[in-house]
Write a structure and sequence with these properties.
alpha/beta; Lyase, Ornithine Decarboxylase, Chain A, domain 1; binds pyridoxal-5'-phosphate; single chain; TIM Barrel; 29% helix; nine-stranded mixed β-sheet
């Protein structure tokens, strides 16, 4: 078939609009002989019938394998250059107690960035010494709790935090390990990076201010300086940004060694994943190898010992493992600029369960989940049900042209920054999260009910108001 004139340049008409490209779909996504999508052997229709739609379905083995592969890849790459690595899972991508246990089971550390994320990790039974605590505006109460609980390391994001953390550590008779987050001036996104003299953003402190900040940290007996940190961006496919950031950080790291130990260096996360088959992703072992080479080269140039290197991938661990299942409600063909037709396929979720298309113009891939079809593919735009024209779930993809109300759609690679950024806009309940493994589906976070949605509104007379669930029962 020929491409729709409305299709973006990166999207080619598919040879088969039912295929499940391996780079995009969870490891254990397959088709049954009937054509139905199977997630770790569980039919999509069964998942929808049991848990409703929308529903996030996580391939547990996929998450565990990615976590283990990341740890193994960084361990072996950094062992090759004579040091060790620490892999933190960036919990902001998707955190619940079950995921915290999966990644801890793979011996990953976890990075949290609020009191709430800290509470989830602690509730999961994660050893606090294996947690890193981030955030550009940690409250004094959050800092106090992190220190009291024995969090392994706190990442200082501004000068004012140095005294706050030192005071908390003194109060709790602890020596708190800290890193210092730098605004390295390198910002990487997808295939490009920008290196600017002074970047206009809220995170970290500038390289120019870092020397004084480290002197301040070292002046407190209740603080132990572990090293520098930088996170240069997300969904990065090329190593150039890391090369530049590592070179800038290690130059400063070498200067800091003159006045005391600097045992570690944290290069952040941001390793890209495939949301569509146009995204070409570097395997984690290749990324780990490149980072090890960059750090080794820079350390040898500077004549300094290799530090322990920490990284913080989030999306690369959970992103590809998950699909969101939706049910198609309405379909309309809209004539665009008087010539081409765009087919809007509306589903029963939207920007409340996946804000990334609206927030970042992120692209996604969709497939029919209840069946396959040999119908000629049609370019579609999958929209949500919210009162916003920007409420798009998949801006452009081809689906079989006979897609119809009642069909189930699966959207791939929704494991990172979808559920964690979910909202109750238009009073939609946040969807449940289901883990699938070896043919068995297991609820790991329940969906919100109408009763949940009404529960915080103090103006409701609980005696007289009846929820939909109560009417149905
Ligand atoms: C400090 C820090 N570390 C790690 C990450 C994880 O990034 P990604 O999920 O793209 O790997 C982020 C994401 O925003 C971050 O801000």
């Amino acid at each position: 078939m020929s491409a729709s004139p409305l299709a973006p340049a990166w999207l080619s008409p598919p040879a088969d609009a039912n295929d499940l490209p391996r780079s995009v779909w969870p490891e254990n996504a397959t088709r049954a002989t009937s054509g139905e999508l199977l997630l770790a052997g569980v039919p999509a229709g069964d998942l929808a019938a049991r848990f409703g739609t929308p529903v996030f379905v996580m391939d547990e083995a996929d998450v565990r394998a990615r976590a283990e592969n990341a740890r193994a890849a960084f361990d072996s790459a950094f062992a090759r250059v004579g040091t060790t690595a620490k892999v933190y899972y960036a919990g902001k991508a998707f955190l619940c107690t079950e995921i915290a246990r999966w990644v801890s089971g793979a011996e990953l550390y976890i990075d949290v960035c609020s009191g709430g994320e800290l509470a989830v990790a602690l509730a999961a039974g994660v050893d606090p010494s294996r947690l890193g605590f981030h955030g550009n505006n940690k409250s004094v109460a959050e800092i106090d709790r992190a220190v009291r609980e024995g969090v392994g390391v706190i990442v200082i994001d501004s000068i004012i935090e140095i005294g706050r953390i030192a005071d908390a550590a003194t109060r709790h008779s602890r020596v708190q390990k800290v890193r210092l987050r730098l605004n390295s001036g390198v910002h990487a996104h997808t295939h490009e990076y920008l290196a600017t003299a002074r970047e206009d953003q809220k995170f970290g402190i500038t390289i120019a201010d870092a020397g004084a900040a480290v002197r301040d940290i070292r002046s407190h007996d209740s603080l132990e300086f572990l090293g520098l940190h930088s996170h240069i961006g997300s969904q990065i496919f090329e190593p150039d940004g890391f090369v530049e950031a590592a070179s800038r950080l290690l130059t400063l790291h070498a200067e800091l060694l003159a006045d005391g130990p600097v045992p570690e260096l944290n290069l952040g996360g941001g390793f890209g994943i495939a949301y569509t088959s146009a995204d070409e992703v570097l395997p984690i072992a290749v990324i780990a190898g490149k980072l090890a080479d960059i750090v080794a080269t820079e350390c040898s140039r500077l004549g300094i010992p290799m530090p322990v290197v920490a990284v913080e991938p989030g999306r690369a661990i959970v992103g590809p493992s998950t699909v969101t299942l939706y049910e198609v409600g309405t379909i309309k063909d809209v004539l665009v600029e008087g010539s081409a037709v765009r087919r809007y396929v509306s589903v029963d979720g939207g920007m409340s369960d996946n804000i990334r298309p609206a927030l970042y113009a992120a692209d996604y891939t969709a497939r029919l989940a209840n069946r396959t079809s040999a119908a000629e593919p049609a370019l579609v735009r999958i929209a949500g049900k919210h009162c916003e024209s920007g409420d798009i779930v998949v801006r452009d993809d081809y689906l079989p042209g006979d897609v119809t109300p009642g069909d189930l759609l699966a959207v791939a690679a929704t494991g990172a920054y979808c559920w964690s950024l979910a909202s109750n806009y238009n009073y939609l309940g946040r969807p449940p999260v289901v883990a699938v493994l070896n043919g068995v589906a297991r609820l790991i976070v329940r969906g919100e009910t109408e009763a949940d949605l009404l529960s915080r509104d103090v103006g409701i007379d609980r005696e007289t108001v009846t929820t939909e669930a109560e009417v149905a029962s």
